[in-house]
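Sample entry (285 residues):
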Amino acid sequence: MALALVACVGCTKKEPRGPGRVVSLQTDVVGLSGLTRDEHGALWVAGEDADAVLRIDPETFGVTRYPVVGAPEGTDLEAMTWVDGTRFVIGTETQDKGRTRDVVLDGRLEGEQFKVSPIGHLEYAHWGLTAPDNHGMEGICHVDGILVVATELIEEARDRRWAPLATFDPKIQTWTAHRIALTSKTGKLAALDCRKVDGAIEALAVERHYGESRLLRFRVPQGTEGQWIEPTVAADVSKLVSPLPNFEGLAWLADGSAVLVADNQYKGAALGPSRLYFIPASAMQ
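Predicted structure, serialized as tokens:
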């Protein structure tokens, strides 16, 4: 792992390549995570350290910084989804080991600030798990009032590796727990977006680890709890992007393409600029 990190630091000096456009963002906020898109096409992303949320102009890619107010102490912002107007929902994690739950935050743009407040928790007891440090909610998306949450936790069962996945229905205030199969020996879920297709919720997720990065496509179960989801690999991003960064956010666009945001932070230092990588629909199955 240490060798991989050293290699990655060296890789930042190379010009990044991908199947679509690669955009470097002009911002001093490091450790971006949880990409989402609003009704106007603007992209939004959180700084993991809960210091700021950024709005990215869809045409110029200019960045507007909004300081975060109200985040619980020690909480990292890891997942973000636009809901409506200036309202968002954010998934989190902390550095505490053996946690039984993580907080879900409501986020609202108010003037020049992005104010957050707790609205609930995701309980890892649904899967009989506890969270290690720096692992928690890595992806969150929203369709017709239903929240879908992907976690970075790992469960080993049926001779496979599985990631806990949950849905939340605010009408009945109920979490429903599922599991999604991972397709690599080391990967974990790192980002999520979803949309409605033929009355069902279809999702696109990032599975990644050092040297691994894949886009997974699957349908989110509705109804019965405890379903075991078998995804398909929509794209092996590790074969499309070089050097391979650490992807922490995903926005699935209406034309079927995807935008990924790379986390440029390691031990609090920036290894290079934060970047957006565009993956055209033609590069995905």
